[in-house]
Amino acid sequence: MQPRFPDSPLRRILILGPSGSGKSTLGKRIGKILGIPTVHLDMYYWNPNWVETPKDEWPSKVKELIASETWVMDGNYTSTLQMRADVADTIIFLDMTRRLSYFRVVARYLRNRGKTRPDVTEGCPEKIDLDFIKWIWNYPLTRKPAILKFLVKLESSKNVYVLHNQGEIEEFLNALRIRYGRNGRI
Questions:
Q1: Per-residue pLDDT tens over the stretch 6-59
Q2: In this structure, are residues 112 and 181 in contact, taking their beta carbons and an 8 Å threshold?
């Protein structure tokens, strides 16, 4: 099924989903197609050595990031989800399986072992620990239901897309290229 896009250009796109679902990769690909900046929230949330931004500072950082006229923003961070969704015109939820998430997280770890990924703050070398493994395992039980419920409430006012596998992602990107890409931009 081809995704239906609005007549107006997509300007602020929010991508959600479990770790390893492909949020950052999809964000970069959409940004390239639309010619708009990609914002990886992990770059702004994490300080060197995987130190979290203090809870009282995080909303201010996000407020600055969402003030831009155009962006593709990837990351969960439910404490600021409502703030980001309020200004987004499009929300994409990557509803991937645990198996795929684990596979991608392990592959990412092997590719970046001892290095910092380009979508995370410098000084945060790639790692996998028990808390991270548990977070991925629990995501479908603890996070996913709340996000899907949240998205249902937004369907009448936002462009909401739920993508379940790589085939649907590629179909979405191809339709996006045709509708808004350099040769098909409105």
A1: 777 899 999 999 999 999 999 999 999 999 999 999 999 999 999 999 999 999
A2: no
Q: Return the pLDDT at 185.
A: 43
pTM of the model: 0.92
pLDDT at 2: 58
Domain annotation covers residue 4: no
- Which of 101, 95, 166, 109 is CA-nearest to residue 137? 101
Pair 110, 141: CB distance under 8 Å: no
Q: How many domains does the chain have?
A: 1
Mark 130-159 as b/e (b = at least 16 C-beta within 10 Å). Answer: eeeeebbeebeeebbeebeebbeeeeeebb
Check which CATH number belongs to the domain holding 26 and give it. 3.40.50.300
The amino acid that residue 144 corresponds to is K
For residue 140, tell me if it sits in a domain. yes
Residue 140 structural domain: 12-180
168 within some domain: yes
Look at residue 84 and tell me if it is in a domain.
Answer: yes
